[in-house]
Amino acid sequence: GQNIDQPTEMTATEGAIVQINCTYQTSGFNGLFWYQQHAGEAPTFLSYNVLDGLEEKGRFSSFLSRSKGYSYLLLKELQMKDSASYLCAVLESNYQLIWGAGTKLIIKP
Amino acid sequence: NAGVTQTPKFQVLKTGQSMTLQCAQDMNHEYMSWYRQDPGMGLRLIHYSVGAGITDQGEVPNGYNVSRSTTEDFPLRLLSAAPSQTSVYFCASSKDEKEKLFFGSGTQLSVL
Predict the structure, then answer these.
(1) Which residues of A touch B57 (CB under 8 A)?
(2) Cα–Cα distance measured from residue A57 to residue B61, given in angstroms and rounded to the nearest whole number
(3) Which of A13, A25, B39, B101 is the S-S candidate for B92 at Cβ 3.0 to 4.6 Å?
(4) Cβ neighbours around A93 below 10 Å, total
(5) pLDDT tops 90 at residue A1
(6) Greatest CA span in chain B, whole angstroms?
């Protein structure tokens, strides 16, 4: 069946690095998205991976291993404004998006 | 550009009432969709459209109707509201179903 797993909540310190993992079992694979969602707001796009490897975009990087059904989002030099939920979503072979429940990231000073 | 405009932001309904959530985008996107977001769960797809005149059901379509008469607009109708439809609703659009989504600001709906 379809399943996406992410940790429910993580805590990190301002200025540090945090890695948010996402594992998936889906019907085919056409790419993996990460979105950021601040409390009370809409999700916004962060990254997209379709090939294995690391994609770097400023302080944020996303990694994909298709053979392991695994991705992570790496956030460096954490800032208080990075406190948000991070949503992992897989695009299946029929182009339907399957969403994880999200990881709530709490940043402490 | 306004992006994706979704109204209203908040709504309270009584069981059995009907209402329409409005969604419009000005990016000439072909793909539009409606999601609901409930605590502890991933976003769940209600209905989607790959272009004007075409709609299809998502994962949780029961109790909801949609239409897509123009590229810009994709309203979601609740036919007879039930407490189980209490949720946060998001409209989203993209160039096509493979591309990143742009979300509206959301509607917090409570059904009493």
Answers:
(1) none
(2) 36
(3) B101
(4) 10
(5) no
(6) 37
Residues composing chain B: 112
pLDDT digits (tens, 9 = 90+) for B85-101: 999 999 999 999 899 99
Structure tokens at A89: 């979503």
**Closest to A100 (Cα-Cα) out of A24, A39, A19, A46:** A24
CA distance linking residue A7 with residue A21, whole number of Å? 7
Which positions of chain B have pLDDT values less than 50?
A: none
Contact predicate A39/A95, CB 8 Å: no
Is beta strand B10-13 parallel, antiparallel or unpaired with respect to B107-111? parallel
Are B42 and A33 within 8 A, CB to CB?
A: no
Query: Which residues are CB-neighbours of B14 under 8 A, at least 6 positions away?
Result: B81, B111, B112
